[in-house]
Specification:
Blueprint (H helix, E strand, L loop, with lengths): L2 H19 L4 E2 L5 E2 L3 H74 L1
Antiparallel strand pairs: 1-2
Main location: other
Subcellular location: Cell projection, Cilium
Keywords: Cell projection, Coiled coil
Length: 112
């Protein structure tokens, strides 16, 4: 195709695109008829990509948060176990202390 024929073809396509635009129809880069303006189509595609990226990052954040919560729950369980062991040891120590006090009093009574 000659350069002149290509230019004539482009002019024809531009005129056709202008005529269709009056009726809310548009011609894209591939010469396909579209309902949306090319700029709106591009913005919609950009928004779609940004939304997918946002959803991906949000999902990753949720997974990280769930993992962090799991670690904290595990740590809380360990702390609770240690707390119970400490309370048990303290109670045992008090019991032994009372037994010794009782034995001490018993020995003092026997000495008198």
């Amino acid at each position: 195709m000659s350069t002149e024929a290509t230019e004539n073809n482009n002019i024809y396509i531009d005129k056709m695109a202008d005529a269709l635009a009056k009726y809310g129809l548009y011609v894209d880069d591939l010469c396909k008829i579209r309902i949306l303006e090319p700029e709106i189509t591009n913005q919609s595609e950009k928004l779609r990509v940004e939304c997918q990226d946002f959803i991906s990052r949000t999902t990753e954040f949720k997974n990280d948060a769930d993992e962090f919560i799991g670690i904290l729950d595990s740590l809380a369980n360990e702390v609770e176990k240690d707390k119970m062991r400490t309370i048990g040891a303290r109670n045992l120590l008090r019991s032994v202390e009372k037994q010794r006090e009782g034995q001490k009093q018993k020995i003092q009574v026997q000495l008198l």
